[in-house]
Amino acid sequence: MAEAQVVITQRGAERLFAGHLWVYRSDIRSAEASPGDAVRVCDERSRFLGRAFYSDSSQIAIRLITREDVPIDRDFLAARIRAAAAFRNRVVENTQVCRLVYGEADQLPSLIVDRYADCLAIQTLSQATERRKIEIAEILQEIFSPRGIVERNDPKVRLLEGLTQKVSLLAGEVPPEVIAEENGVRFHFDLFKGQKTGGFLDQRENRRAAATYASGEVLDCFTYNGGFALTMASRCQQVEAIDLSPAAVEAGRRNQALNQIANVSFREANAFDVLKNYDEQGRRFDMVLLDPPAFAKNRASVPAARRGYKEINLRALKLLRPGGYLVTCSCSHHIPEHLFLEILAEAANDARRQSVVVDRRTQARDHPILLTVPETHYLKCLIVRAL
C-alpha cells in the first residue's frame, strides 16, 4: 500500500518555511490519505517538507509534526510526551495541577494533557489525535501511572473536524471531584464538568504574582472558583469576589471552606454593574482584579471587545486608592498585547489616573508560546499601579 501523502501549493510551503505548522485546505493540491493519517508532506516539485497530521474535514488540513522523514509511531509519540513532561519538571512548582502537553507548542498538535493531582484529563482535537486516543492514553499510563484518565472532548472545535463532542472515562477511575493544591491553596476540580478540562491552569503563575502586590481591600471580578481571591487572601484585609454564574460562586465558597479562609466574601453579580455602582458610590479598593471571559471570539468581534475591555478597566482604575493595583487580563487571542496596552492607556487617560505597568505577564510556563504560531499566545495579564 502506498504511503499516505499530501501535496501542497507554494503558498502552503512558504507558510511552513516561515515556521507555522498549519496548512489550510485551500493550499492542498492533492491528498492520497485517509482522515487522521500521519502523512508525508511535499510541494508541487515533490520536495519533502515534513510529516503531518491530516484532516479531510477541517480548514486546517495539515498540522506539521516534524520536518524529519521519520515514522510517526508509538515510540515517536512517547518520546514527545516524555520531552514535554521533562520541561514541566523544570518549570512547574508549588502546584499539583499543570498542563503536561500543550499541542503545537510541544510539537504534538491538537493534543492537550492536563494533570490534576493523580488524575489526567486529555483533549484530542483533530482526527489524527482522536484516532490515536487509546494509544496516547496507554502511553500516559506507562509514563505517569495516573489514577485515571478523562477525555474532555467537548470543545466545539471538534465539530470542525467532523468529530462528536464527548466526555468519558478512558482509563482507571476518576472521582466526581479531585482536590488538588495550587500555590498553597486547595481547590475542588471537576474533570467531567468543570471549565476547560476542570480549571483555568494558565493563570497559576499570575495568581501568585498578583498576591505579591495585594493588600488591604480587594475586589475580584469574574472570580470563577476564587482562584485569585483565595490565593491572595492571606495578604489582604478583605476580598470581595463576584461572578455572574451561581455555580461559580458556589464553587468559590466551597473552595473557601476547604481552606478555612474567613476574609473572602463571594456573591453573584454582574461585574459591569458592580464596577459602575461602586464608582457612583465612591467605593475605593487597594486592588481590583479583572479576569473576564474572552470578549473577542473572532476578528469581527474585536471592536465590541475593545469597548468592553475599555469600560471595565476605566471603571476599575477609578475605584483604586492612590498607589493601588489593577490586575487585568485578556484571554482573547484576537486582542494582542500591544492593543491591550493601548486600550489600558485610553482607559487610564479617561479615568484621569496616571498609571504605570509594573508587571507584564502571559500564560503560565507550562503553556509555552511557539514563536512562529501566534495562536499559542492568547493570555495577557498586566499589573498596573495607579499613582
Secondary structure layout:
Elements: E1 5-8, H1 10-17, E2 22-24, E3 28-32, E4 38-42, E5 48-54, E6 60-66, H2 74-91, E7 97-102, E8 111-116, E9 119-124, H3 127-131, H4 133-144, E10 148-153, E11 166-172, E12 178-182, E13 185-189, H5 204-213, E14 217-221, H6 227-232, E15 238-243, H7 246-259, E16 264-268, H8 271-281, E17 285-290, H9 302-319, E18 320-330, H10 337-351, E19 355-362, E20 380-386
Parallel strand pairs: 1-4, 9-10, 14-15, 14-17, 15-16, 17-18
Antiparallel strand pairs: 1-3, 2-6, 4-5, 5-6, 7-8, 8-9, 10-11, 12-13, 18-20, 19-20
Helix pairs in contact: 2-4, 8-9, 9-10
Name its key features.
single chain, 387 residues, alpha/beta, Archaeosine Trna-guanine Transglycosylase, Chain: A, domain 4, Transcription Regulator spoIIAA, Rossmann fold, 7-stranded mixed beta sheet, 6-stranded mixed beta sheet, 30% helix
Walk me through what this model shows.
With 387 residues, the protein is α/β, with parallel strands linked by helices. 30% of the residues lie in helices and 31% in strands. It has a 7-stranded mixed β-sheet, sandwiched between helices. A hairpin with a 5-residue loop joins strand 4 (38-42) and strand 5 (48-54). The longest helix is centred in the first third of the chain and has 18 residues, at 74-91. The chain is globular, with a radius of gyration of 22 Å. The relative contact order is 0.10.
